[in-house]
Structures are given as structure tokens and as C-alpha cells.
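Researcher: Please predict.
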Amino acid sequence: MILVSRHLEPPSSTPEPTRHLPVLLPETIAALAPERGGLFVDATVGGGGHAEALLEAGPEIRLIALDRDAQAVTRSRTRLERFGERVQFLHAPFSAIGSLLGSGDRGRVAGLLADLGLSSDQLDDRHRGFSFQQDGPLDMRMDRSAQKTSAAVLLAHASEDEIEEWLSEYGEERFSRRLAHAIVHQRRFGPLLRTSQLADLVARTIPRGRAGIHPATRTFQALRIAVNRELGELESLLDQAPALLAPDGRLALISFHSLEDRRVKEAFRAEVKSGRSADLLPGGVRASDAETRANPRARSARLRAIRRVSAEPA
């Protein structure tokens, strides 16, 4: 499609070293208890911070490092090179984890981690189009090699009702109808192709919220979720992951907004109620004040974790 080829800039073939700080790192490693050894899965390896800490916990640890973002796989491969054959790298969405694990590893995973947030590497790269804080192509795809529909294409072809639904459901935007109408009206004058265009349109259309919160925050979240089908991906992971764990295996998920956290909480609650798992962190854990001062992007993170206690209900 012309809209993609002319206006969406290609990513760098050699990504820069990671700038991402892993959130809730000590808490996550404590929940996963890697000192037990065995096979661990980092389903969103990103910059490799959590993965590195897991591998450093002991020489008997093996790790499957998975990510939907090819640049993240490249970065983590460089960072984790010193661990040699103890790490297997896979470029794939985490919804595919069940099919990617060998039959001998299913039901034998000692720990599985997924950090559901965007990395600083993704947010700070203007070519990826995830952030309204700098101008770039309105892209937002996690995997440009497999995904054909960017945020620009999505907005160019969706109906007003579809856009309103995304903004309301995925962004929890109070002014979703007004904003959807403005986006569709803008198409009469030309497509929205740049992050700055969309951010300016949102700022002109809806009132500014709390101090320091840009009015486009919810819109960009909603479109990113829609482009990448993030909630469907998460639900698929939650359906598969518990059965991959060995007895005493740990599942730890870090969410960054209520839509994710609600699904994680409900899935974990069902696992605990079934008798198959125990809740390691009732209510979840949030980043400390010290961590959020050092890394403001950690402020909305919440870690939840369960431990597999039996293969079948009691």
C-alpha cells in the first residue's frame, strides 16, 4: 500500500545499545527464584535486563529469550552473548510460546516472565512512532516484518465507530466520540501520517487533563493496543503459560495499565481457585518511590506472580 511505503520510515538494521531500565527487577527475580535452576522463559526479553539477572543467578540456568520486536532480539543477543549456549533467542510473539517450546520442555519450565510495557528503546526511537513527544511516522507496529497495518493505515480506513470503540475501550478516553469524529473529519484534508499530526489534533479537540499528562496519552495507548492486538496476545499467553510450568514453577507478569492488570489478576485468581497455583504476591507489587524517581516509566508498573503447586486441581 502506498501509504506504508512512502511515509513509514524503515528501522535501523543495527539498533543502538539498549537504554531501557528493567522495572521491578529485584522483586521480579525474587518471585521467579532462579536459584532453583532449570529452564526459564523471558517472553518479552526487550533490552535483556531481566534475562541477564536470571542468568547471573546460577550456571545451571537455561533461558529462552523471546520477543516480537526484532530489534529487541538483536539488542538482547549482544547483551547476553557471554552466556553462550545457555540462551536460545526467538523472534516471535509471546502468544506462540506453547508451540515454540519443545515437547520435552512443556510442563518443565521453572519460571516464565512477561514485561508487558513498551521499552525505552521503542519509545525513544522516533521512527517507531510509539511516542507523541517527538515527531515520527505514525507506525506503532511491534513487528514490522510480520505486521502490515500501521497506526496510520488503521486510522485511514477505520470507521468513526471503530475508532471510537478503540479510544473508549483501549484508551478509556472520556472524549472518545468527539475525538473519533475529529479524526474522521481530518481525513477530508489528508491522512494522519505523523505522530505530531495526531498529537496536535488531539490537543486541539479535547480538554487538557491533569498537569503533566499530555491529552494524547490515552489516544496513543489505544492505537498501539489496536495495532498490535495486545490484549488478545495477553489472553493467549495467560491461557497457555500455567500449563507450561513445572511443579513449583513461577509465572510473573508486569502490567502497566488497568486493561492488562485486570486480565492478569482474573487469570491468576482462577488459577489459585482451581488449586493448581498459589498467589506469591497478593494484590501485586508496585515500584518503590526510589525506583520511580530514578525511572519515571516504572510508576504505573505492577508485578503479579503465581507458583504452580500441582498439575491438577486438588
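Model: The longest helix spans residues 258-274.
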